[in-house]
Amino acid sequence: MKKAKVVTLCTALLMCLIQSSVSAATTTNLDSDGPNNGLPTYKLIQNVLGPDAIEAPDSFDELQHIKETTQSPVGNAFIFYLHRDADGDPTGTTSGNQRNEIKVYAGSNDNLKGFQGETLTYKWKFKVDSTMLVSKRFTHIFQLKSEGGDNDHPIVTFSGAKTSSGDELQIRYSSSSSSGDTILKSIDWSSVQGTWIEATVTARMSDNGSLSVSLKKLDGTTLASYSKSSGVDMWRSGNFIRPKWGIYRSLEDITNLNDAKVYFANFSITKQ
After folding, report:
1. Is the dihedral of CA 178, 182, 187, 191 positive or negative?
2. pTM of the model
3. Rounded to whole angstroms, how far apart are CA atoms 170 and 183?
4. What is the mean predicted confidence (pLDDT) over 213-233?
5. CB atoms within 10 A of CB 155
6. CB of 203 closer than 8 Å to CB of 144
7. Residue 18 or 49, more confident
8. For the chain, what percent of residues have pLDDT higher than 70?
9. N or C: the chain end with fewer CB closer than 10 Å?
10. What is the rounded distance in angstroms from the CA atom of residue 85 to the CA atom of residue 105?
11. Is the CATH number 2.60.120.200 carried by domain 28-271?
């Protein structure tokens, strides 16, 4: 009888430990509530990411550059706009570039920040407008960046680029601001034009970190995937790692660009 009680107690303790480990994970979601419903778009974003999470070029042409819509098959979604000949960089930190992004930043909740040694998973859906063009320079629609430390260049980006092989969406990685980009995977730009894509990025924020990336159509078809479980430098000696979503592009090859539109839906950040 005593042995049975000990086994039962050990089992109960093990279950408690497992439940504690599971409950330690936190997930934060940002979802559109649709046009003309619920909170105003900017307030909805700020309530989740923080009051200074939006870098939109509204002051350049007095237009709202992030709006909401309803899109089949995802339902409610956000639209990010850039106007080629009117908009600039609202941060004032660059010239010759345009930016319309939302971000995790110093004022965001700590559950959204990737501190050293932590593993975070970012999930979202996106669709590039069927008419949107890319240039020989960069067009980022997702970034993982360091807050502080070596933060001049992003660690990971999803970037549109015009290449000798054609227009591409590239998954890029950089171990430092001076190292240049490594293209981990690339797919035809047309693969994400007019088609909803589900993106998943999981990273361990460490000098000896890990990185996993997946791009899938909503029917489950894999467009691109990359995974390395160790040896990926995901730490830049800063305060934390943060995501940015939207459109950030160079105007140095402006003749190859046009007005841009990217749809986003169902953002989530899970800290494991």
Report:
1. negative
2. 0.91
3. 6
4. 98
5. 26
6. yes
7. 49
8. 92
9. N
10. 28
11. yes
**Contact criterion met (CB below 8 Å) for 235 and 210:** no
Residue indicated by tokens 């940015």: 244
From residue 249, give the alpha-carbon distance in Å to each of 36, 58, 118: 29, 16, 30
Residue 80 makes CB contacts below 8 A (sequence gap 6+) with 65, 66, 100, 101, 245, 246, 247, 260, 261, 262, 263, 264
Would you say the C-alpha torsion 139, 92, 242, 127 has a positive or negative sign?
A: negative
Distance of CA 22 to the CA centre of its chain: 24
The pLDDT confidence band at residue 12, using thresholds 50, 70 and 90, is low
Task: Please tell me the distance from the alpha carbon of residue 128 to that of residue 194, in angstroms, as a whole number.
Answer: 6
Buried b (16+ CB within 10 A) or exposed e, 235-252: bbebebbbbbbbbbbbbe
Q: What are the beta bridge partners of residue 126?
A: 197, 264
CA 144-265-62 angle, 5° bins: 85
Distances in Å between the Cα of 163 and the Cα atoms of 172, 186, 223, 251 are 14, 11, 19, 16
For the record, the structure tokens of 39 come out as 């909170």
Q: What is the DSSP letter of 111?
A: G
For residue range 57-96, list pLDDT tens digits in order. 999 999 999 999 999 999 999 999 999 999 999 999 888 9
Structure letter (DSSP) for residue 193: B
